[in-house]
Design brief:
The protein is mainly α. The chain is built from ten helices and four strands, in the order H-H-E-H-E-E-E-H-H-H-H-H-H-H. Helix content is 64%, strand content 6%.
């Protein structure tokens, strides 16, 4: 079966990413305007520094947070060979490869562009899955790289983080360090209120985009490997094993939840609106339909 070279491209995802960035830019522009009007420009320097740190160092920070490190082909020959083979099939530059020493079975991709990307697998997932299943997982992560949704997610999460910091800063200092003597400028309460709105909007947009991008990456994995059933089997194994991972280990990984192939908690959220991933049942159903389509094409 011939595989399309644009395996990971998803028009729906591209449109959603564009809309998400537009809406986030809009609400963030309002926040910046309020901060300037409130005459607390030092916040803009803080925000600018945070943005640069998030954009250029988020991959290193994420790897450090997960206790992961980049590995050489000599250290992880099978994983490197698998990633290289998938990259050839997908017409992608080979990313850096990292391994996180944790029992939690998971994987993620980070980096602001395909040439700056890193794909990471945990020791737990490499021990749990068969080679075909692990290949499906790594193809899923490479689809994230191809779609460039990692960069969009990184920037989108930045907006929510900044808004949350401003709210915390305002409450911590009680407005004293942010207030202005100009009666015509907005009060600190207005800055906090606008920041809170920005946080809520950013959070909801981030969750919605995160759920859709997982469907797109599942599809990309199915097409590049030609075996949707292998990824489905991997997801079921990961789900079953996640329940046995100590809660303290899962809580330590919550900050990276949106970037993992499977959320680091044993049970899905009762409210799908606030979940970073689609329900497992929906992902399995979509993969089953792809399996039927690929077999029909074959």
């Amino acid at each position: 079966m011939a595989r399309p070279t644009s395996f990971g491209r998803d028009t729906g995802l591209q449109l959603r990413m564009t809309l998400t960035m537009f809406l986030l830019g809009l609400v963030y522009a309002v926040l910046v305007g309020v901060v300037i009007a409130a005459k607390v420009p030092f916040l803009l320097f803080v925000v600018g520094g945070m943005f640069l740190l998030q954009l250029f160092a988020s991959d290193k920070l994420a790897l450090h947070a997960m206790g992961a490190r980049e590995v050489t082909p000599q250290e992880a020959p099978q994983l490197h060979a698998m990633v290289e083979r998938l990259c050839v099939q997908a017409n992608l530059p080979k990313p850096r490869v990292a391994v996180a020493n944790t029992r939690m079975p998971n994987a993620f991709a980070i980096g602001r562009s395909p040439r700056k990307a890193t794909v990471c697998a945990t020791t737990g997932i490499m021990e749990l899955l068969s080679p075909a299943e692990l290949e499906g997982v790594m193809a899923h992560e490479l689809t994230h790289v191809q779609n460039r949704d990692v960069m969009v997610m990184t920037i989108a999460s930045f907006f929510a983080t900044v808004a949350a910091y401003i709210v915390q800063f305002g409450f911590f200092f009680g407005g004293g360090g942010m207030s202005s003597n100009d009666d015509d400028s907005p009060s600190v309460a207005v800055v906090i209120l606008v920041s809170l709105v920005v946080y809520v909007v950013s959070f909801l947009l981030l969750q919605a985009l995160s759920r859709y991008r997982e469907f797109a990456a599942d599809r990309g994995s199915a097409v590049i490997t030609g075996r949707p059933s292998a990824l489905a089997a991997a997801l079921m194994k990961i789900s079953g094993t996640m329940e046995r991972i100590p809660q303290k280990d899962l809580r330590s990984a919550e900050g990276m939840a949106a970037f993992y192939i499977f959320p680091p908690h044993a049970k899905q959220s009762l409210m799908n609106l606030f979940s970073t991933h689609p329900p497992l049942e929906q992902r399995l159903a979509a993969l089953s339909r792809l399996e039927s389509q690929l077999q029909g094409v074959g």
